[in-house]
Batch of 4 targets.
Target 1
Amino acid sequence: MNLATGAAKALTTFKTGRCLWPTLSYDGKSIVFERGFGIWKLDTHSGKAEELHFALRGVPSTPGVTHMALSSWSGLALSPDGKKIAVAAHGEIFAAGAKEGGEPQRLTFTDAAESDPQWSADSTKLVYRSERDGGSSLYVYDFDTNTEHALTHSHDTDVAPEWSPDGKSLAFLRNRKELHVLSLDDKAAIKADKVIATGEMGFYGDGGLAWSPDSKWLVYVPVGVDGFSNLYAVPADGSATSRPITFLANGQNASHIAWSPDGKYILFDTSQRAEDPQLARVDLIPHVPAFREDQFADLFRKQSTPGAPDTPTDRRRPGNPSETTPNNNGAQEPAEGGARRGAGADTTTKKPEPTKIVFEGIRNRLTLLPIGLGVRYPVISPDGKTLAFLAEVAGLANIYSYSLDELAREPAAAKQLTSGAGFKSDIAFAPDSKSIFYLESGGGRGAGGGSTVHSYSLDSNTAKNINLATSIDVDFDKEKMVVFDEAWSTLDHRFWNGSFNGANWPALRDEWRPYIEGARTGAELRRDINLLIGELNSSHSGISLPTPPSVRTGRLGLRYEREPYEKDGSLIVREIVPLGPASLEGSIKVGDKLAAVNGTPITGSVNLDSLLEDRAGKRTVLSIETAGKKRDAVVRPVSLQVESGLLYRDWVESRRAYVDKVSGGKLGYVHIAAMGDGDLAQLYIDLDAVNQAKKGVVIDVRNNNGGYVNGRVIDVFARKNYLLMTPRDGSPAPSRQALGQRALGLPTVLVTNESTLSDGEDFTEGYRALQLGKVVGTPTAGWIIFTGAQRLIDGSSVRTPGERIQTIEGKDMEWHPRPVDVEVTRPLGETETGEDAQLKKAAETLLMQLK
């Protein structure tokens, strides 16, 4: 490109392959670049390009076979007898004693990944998922014979395996389209395979299925009208079609379905995304409350013989045929095998009473428990008296309990059981209901992907670490092919359109396999897979490996003059970041020299970052020189992220001042950096009294990198006031603001650009579609897809663009930038002048609208 004229011309004319990483020589005569895993050189004068050839010497180095210690786990399952636990790590399944842990027994020895172990009702078998067949198949391990055999084996995706409480059946989902039930014999051999429900089944982790205590019913979560998900019940023998038991207009239901031990009600979490999930209870039969007075009547029950079990008086209420008859012990018995996922019911109990579902009027038998916290993963104790669940408070996820005992004398209230920053998961009750088992990660919600096993005593309120540790040998040359197959298969099943954007996905697998076979390191492997994924030409995609956090280098909130530094290494202060460490210190001024850090002089050979390594948040003494005189200044450096945030807020304030200036004080300004919860909260702050008092507001979403809250942001600008509220002798206020609903209620204009991505583009489309105002700037990026991630055996994650985003007219937004009404391109170098042509035009456009 000619920078003076803006004219551009092509330098290469290849018809296939990629040209990557172009590097221009200092004299401008040559460009070297990568193409087809080779290095090429282009003569800029003649335009001729040719591949350079290198003779590599030595033996290629690969990790080979490495000995890997394992002490971090996933997929915790507690056996129904409470004596054993099963876990997964690095694609293998392990089992150990639940009391002390120790070195677990390794059950699988395949190159493929295994996961999601589940115990049988008799605690002698494990079912788990395996990817060894090219899909996701189910295998079972029998501890009586120490053998394994396949239950399903194909390219289908079989997930969410759930043993029935009586141990005679196994339910699972296939390809998110079919609910299967396998009838099994005592050796877990298949007697029958029946599809009992079909449809689109949106499973969330392992929470999509639940058996009734009597093993006669299954509840699952299909996707319904407008993406709403509700609970459906279906007879396990397939004798009748499934019927809904909830009717909520929510998009997210049931991270875990908890069926009460007596079979009479179900608990599950439900919400719209971006809302705190609530705990819902649906009574399967009309609920008859328990009364404390009945406890006194129990004292007068007759005994047939001394020491024999009491024979109760039948106190069923007249006219309530749905109430089940007590058994000979005078109590409803819990299910054999207990709750799903080894929740720990006593397998010695007798056959449970039949589960009844009265569908008539069930819509009105749903209530929300007044817990007061966002509830995830609810689990009911085997005795039915205690609920355990996950809740996140102040960014920390911990386990809480809540009483379900109707006869308890104290009002039910949430009680925090665990503490700490580690994310908790996989809650399971012991058979006696007196303790729980769970996993805890070493840090926050995405810390490392693995966790340690813990138990918690509800009697003593103490937590205990169940230490599990072992090791395996990992052959890199075998594992890299597994990672490749996992990545390819994940996108093969989940990519947002079956045509793969015109790419021949099976052929690409064959084309890239030799490159993967030649990869010598994990980094090379992931680079090759990223290039393969690039053939799909999709945003929100790729493969990456989480890296441990690096040592934080402290930042002083100072920026320095370039020329003195390049001359002799002198650091002369050019700018002080508002609210940064130096700004808060107060005495440091522009033009001062930073002479030393903690006594170490700064010279041309000293790296400032090395002096500030690991100093974030710590007392640091700076030597400041002004007109030849030195003094000490004590600061507390911040992290790079904090300093970047301060610089961003300073930029926002400068843009606000610019709009105020070019509009003659008539217009306000807000910038939305992304579309996350924190950004929404910041928008609420930025739409302050100053902006509310203007005649209109400029909304800036340039460089917005997306998120998911665009709908709630739109609401702030779309809501209009239609009432005023005025106290006696007071000033009138718009009713929405007076009643506490966020609404701007002023005319607006939107500014966007080519670096506005994803949910920022969704917001731009919503603004246009709802005709909230004019859109100024340049068209957005056209990177609009809904994505998730799938973890692979080596710990890396494949980002999976799985859902298309369309306009209300049904037109795809991926590849199609959102247009603008008034196109304005910022001139090159405009930032240095303090001008902003896009903001200026936006202000002019809104002012014209206000006339």
Note: The chain is about 15% helix and 30% strand.
Target 2
Amino acid sequence: MKIIIFIFCFLLSFHIQSQDTRPIRDDIGYCWKPNQFNHLINFLESKTNDLPNVQKMVAGISPHDDYLYAARAYYSLFKNIRVKEVVIFGVTHSTVRKKIGDPQNKLIFDDFLYWSGPTKKIPVSALREFLKKNMPGEYIMTSNLAHKLEHSIEATLPFLQYFNPEIKITPIMVTGMPFAQMERISDEISKFIIAYIRQNRLQLGRDIFFLISSDANHYGQDFKNTSFGQDARAHELATNQDKKIAQAYLSGNISRLTIKDLARTLWGKTYRDFDSTLWCGKYSIPFGMLTVLKILKKIKEENTLRGRILYHSDTYSNGVLPIKNTGLGITAPFSLKHWVGFFSAGFFIN
């Protein structure tokens, strides 16, 4: 009997320990082995000397496409980040929405103690539990399943950990919601993030950073998005449209009105209009930027950010990186009938 009890306790302990870390979702498009990721970084360092060096960022936008497509965009952002913890606003993709009942008007948290990283587990910041404890219940939900299925946050972690080995994260998935609801929820979350920052005497951009995950337009017949056609001219027109949106709303001075105009541009007539420009960060970007602005206004007495597009491309224009021995693959094809745009951006206080 004692042996049986011991085995049961051991198995129970193993199960509990295995559940404390959010498992890896994508081991094809992203790289989780240290030596392979180092090989990728060495390649990027040798091939991307023309990427900008920037300082004093407080927030940024990262892609979550496959590294073989978008590694230059990741690298241009993360090589400039040196902080202790990061709040990450992720997407809730349609495949995930279908599996979890398509919740609306909420932020989705998890219960994991750690997330996976290439070199070691990445701890979740105490900020997450502080937010879950204090935010109104109608604005939040907790779902480990949602976070297990969603890849937009995990995509950022290998790059984030490489440049910030002791990083802590607060992972948050943003669901669909109209702009008025974004205003209400961002009021609440910014209030409690400010309290946490002040309690822990953190400085924006040095101790804590705000990261938003998003890819740009998803174009082609697979996405039911062929408004310009499906030839080289269509690709040129659609990518130019992406660039104009990014430059108009995510570079230069950014205010609440800028963010509201961006949301209208990405959403079309209503926030649920999926026939508009298919950026998967159509909710995470406006919500994350509103939250950052409100935090700045209280802490720095600033209500304006300056944005800078660091890198912009798409899966068709450059194809896959000519690099081997990384263990990386691609999770989707590229052609004039199927391509995805992506970019990285940094945001600064004047």
Note: Residues 234 and 342 are 17 Å apart (CA to CA).
Target 3
Amino acid sequence: MSAEIKSKQFYHEKSTALMDRHLAQPNWSLHQKMALACRILAAEGHESALAGQLSVRAEKPNTYWMLSYGYGFDEATASNMLLVDDDLNVVEGDGMPNPANRFHLWIYRQRPEINCLIHTHAPYVSALSMVGEELAVAHMDTCMFHDDCAFLKDWPGLPIGDEEGEIITSAMGGKRAILLAHHGQLVTGTTIEEATMLGIWIERAARLHVLARSIGAIRPIDPNLAKEAHDWRYKPKAVGATFSYFSRRVLRQSDECLH
């Protein structure tokens, strides 16, 4: 007798229940998770001297945590984070905010569901941004960007003013990510873990895009199946487990970022 064929929804619900039961997360503080996220991105090739930015919405309205300017992602620790207000004035901590973080403030104002922003100039994202192509989502591993990655086709210049913030926010619309022409990438998340996962995978998606184009045209995938894979990748426990995995890789080298 053949086994009963169950629906995918049955297995979605079963796997979600198992994730909730088995995928516990370490009890890291907010600053420790910020430092881990920076170190993860550095290890994944996202560092670009001082150009990388990570910010997190703070508990007090209109305040945000960010890495003090002058430190690279690979130098981030729980102790070199700054709390700033809605005009990048330091509220807590000792250091200088990154002036390019000003455009983050615009996105936070317009998108209350967003709690973390990550912007980097990773090499494959940057290469793709130079040729004027939108990110191709045609592989199972990168379906979290299906219908969820905007494209800013014209470079508005150095993002230290309000104009750039307004332009980038408008181009993003309601999407989680954006490819910035002649610049790099920006990803967002409801959590640090979610934004970090997107930061890792947008660079991998860009790399796959560049590699695939080197051997032929990219074949599109079924949008309904892409939507299913997109939603699967955003299961909170799976996102958290992914962050923990990359964190363990960082911590095997050194735990200084936690201090």
Note: Strands lie at 53-57, 64-67, 81-84, 90-92, 116-120, 149-152, 177-180, 184-189.
Target 4
Amino acid sequence: MTSPNSLRRLPFLSAVFLITFSILIFQIAQTRILSVITWYHLAFFAISVAMLGMTVGAVWLYLWRERFERSSLAVILSNFALATALAMPASVMVQFCLVTPVSLSLTTVVSWSLLLIAMAAPYVFSGVVVSLALTRSPFPTGLVYGVDLLGAALGCVAVLGLLNVVDGPTSIVLSGAISGLSAMAFAASASSEDQKRLKSRSWWRRPAPVVIALIAFALLNSLAPVGTHPMRPILVKNNVEGAGGADDAVYERWNSYSRIVAMPSYIQFPTMWGASPKLPSDTRVSEIDLNIDGMAGTAMFHYDGTRDSISFLQYDLVNLAYRLPGIHKSAVIGVGGGRDLMSAHLLGVSDITGVELNPIFIELHTREPFYSTFSNLMTLPNLKLHVDDARSWFASTTEKFDLVQMSMIDTWAATGAGAFSLSENGLYTLEGWRAFLKAINDHGIFTVSRWYAPDDVNETGRMIGLATGALLDAGVKDVRPHLFVARAEHIATLVLSKSPFTEEQLRTLNDAVLDLGFRVLLAPNQPPESQLLAAITESRDLIALDRTADAPYLDLRVPTDNRPFFFNQLRFSDIPNALLGHLGFGVVAGNLWASLGLILILFISIVAVTATILVPLRGAVRECLRPLIVFGSLYFSLIGMGFMLTEIALLQRFSVYLGHPIYSLGVCLFSLILASGLGSLTSEQLKLDARGKLLGWGSIVVGYLVVLEQSLPGVLESTTNRERLVRITISLTAIMPLGFVLGFAFPTGMRLVEEVDRHPTPWFWGINGATGVLASVAGLMFSMSLGINVTLLMSAACYLLLVPTSIVLLQLGTTPCFEVKDDDESKRFASAPFG
């Protein structure tokens, strides 16, 4: 055991702060990387892998505890912190080279398993560091744990700013450099003899040269010309970035929202969403393609100040609503390359507003010399641009518009069905459309365009269902006179009027559709060809609508903030039929492979936690009291499941509220880490060591979760119109009290089982980590199938069951199976407040 005088206090605590600070920067930056190379919904995967890796690191420490105990603590910590520093950029570079397809093959399992291993490696090394620092430190555990929490919490905040300064790969390298600084601080905390030993190592095994190399590499990667970055993705969404990819780009910019890549300008037939067959085939325009996170994209067209240069935009179906008379003031959701704003100007709108979430697009049009003069967007008269989440902006504005347009826009700008199948999206929920309709005048128009597949309802059907629901919610009894839908080959455009269409308006729309060669899909005087869509638009209330829209083969129910998965229409129970090809193609294909990917991750996670946690720790439960193993395992399974279900539900709920998952991730992790840690520390003074205390604590936890489930939706909707800083404050206010009381669960359980037998405690924290990993995947499935509120209530049920389980453990405390020596390693290890 290390003596108190053999370690220097300040360097040691600084090292603990830096390692946890870097881990959280790495974890959240990792979600941004995954959004580029795979899909957005894998933010939850980064959380589960972090928990898996940290738990495996602790298992490693337990299995090799005698070897670790014989070595100097400062030397071990410095070595593993240095390994963490090198593993962080190495991990991401491996991920950049991996193909992660979803198919029914062993190759897919291997590919995703390699991704999990690559992602987990830094957490394994850091898990050893954190576990050792907490269990073998000569300093008070509460002090070390407090510094650990402070570093982790501040890392959640720091990464949001860092990602707006440097690109994603560079932020990973910098997180590695910070881990290297931690290794230096651990080395500085060592005794004089140990410092001599550390300095005698080869130069490449010393922290200082590694830190200098990583900082130099970060500068090189950040300052390198576009397309020549030494650390950049090779495979993006399983496509090689080469010809036509980032290597040909002339502009690349990352921020916390996305990676934007601009290709060279060229002259070609214009890129259109729903091009009219009447558009002359010899039309040529100067265009720049803007790629978003490797899959989605938008086009920037050259505007020379004359209407002729953008006249082709009148042939795009998404601009159909501008043909209506009386459109003088419009707003566009999603500026992108500026095409919708140009369309509004071309078609006679005199007052135009654009709302864009991603500041990179606004900077292209206003600050970047080449792009601002290429698009000339700011030369449009009476144009106003706002950088904000559209839903929040429309909820807060007092302006009224004649028309609001949302063409092929998603919350985070990716339009591929696969990219967003499993992601929550606040622009396409009943509450979101309520905010948009509020900003339209009494005779105003809301126009939305989505993908259309012939002979299938898919996204277009759900868009029509959502429009029906929004009108019913606004008090309209008969929605058909308010809806007009036209389609091109693969795009459908909804034109929704707050008041019934007049004969003149219908004539104008029908004439425009006929002139441009489109086809009417739905109109007040023309029922849809689909019987399902006809039944949906004939619904007279929201209950009847949801009953009708819950079709036998697709889920077209109205998305709400409780189930904000607009793009996922495939129920898990219908996956077998989809595999057999009984549900058609279109959006179902994207939904199918996304859902299979989720199931695959669950399967790999089960194998991983079994092989790396449960099997290695099985020896810790031999020759122990069976009731202790049964109820102890149940206890720690419940808190692992309950805590993670709570976290996943809050992440999804606040993702819609704050406008982007990166903010939700930072805010939720910050508040839960800090508050639960404070609760864990407080539990040392306010011990739950009696039946009444356990009942009281359980009542508080379950009651808070139930009240949160009931009241949170109303609070969030009523404050959506506030500034983001206010919304973040509201989020923290809601989460931190919950995190504080949840923090009592783990240390209380450890004390209860220690009263019986200290030997199986490693098994119990392994069970806690294993169930937490699996619950992160299950939580997403529950939210998609049943709703975020049900996921939150399921977490409440876990904590409700925890109360009788803890009381049984309390009663077992009077009958230990055998005496344990005071210096037993399991006592030291179990005393650390994990989780």
Note: The chain is about 55% helix and 10% strand.
